[in-house]
Each structure stands twice: as structure tokens, then as C-alpha cells.
Design goal:
The protein is mainly alpha-helical and 68 residues long. It has one domain. It has three helices and no strands.
């Protein structure tokens, strides 16, 4: 089991080490994903119940569940 995990690790390690354009492309992909999630979080997924007490939150959730 341990030998298999080590061989898988070495396979990917050597593959990424020998990349020429791949490193820059993976970096670009990761940056785009991080920026995308940050933008979505900031503009579309604002905390709807920020600043409310626990009682207000539970009442809101209860009424929303009853409506649906």
C-alpha cells in the first residue's frame, strides 16, 4: 500500500517537474479559479443574516421552511 502511494506521488512529481508550459498554465488556472470564487462570494453570496441574533436567524429559517 505504501509503495503504491509513493509510486503515484513520484509519477505526478516527475510529471510536474518536467513540464515546460504546464506550470504556467496550472498557475493561471488556479489564479482564475481563486479570483472567480472571490468575485462570486463578494457580489453574489452576501451573508443574508449578518448582524442578526440567533433567535432572529432561527425564526427566519423556520418561516422560509414553512413557505416552501
Amino acid at each position: 500500500m505504501k509503495k503504491t502511494i509513493i509510486s503515484i506521488w513520484n509519477f505526478y512529481y516527475e510529471g510536474f517537474k518536467n513540464m515546460t508550459w504546464g506550470k504556467q498554465l496550472w498557475l493561471l488556472i488556479f489564479l482564475k479559479v481563486i479570483i472567480l470564487f472571490l468575485v462570486l462570494r463578494l457580489f453574489f453570496f452576501k451573508p443574508a443574516m449578518a448582524g442578526k441574533t440567533d433567535e432572529q436567524k432561527s425564526e427566519y429559517v423556520g418561516t422560509q421552511l414553512i413557505k416552501k
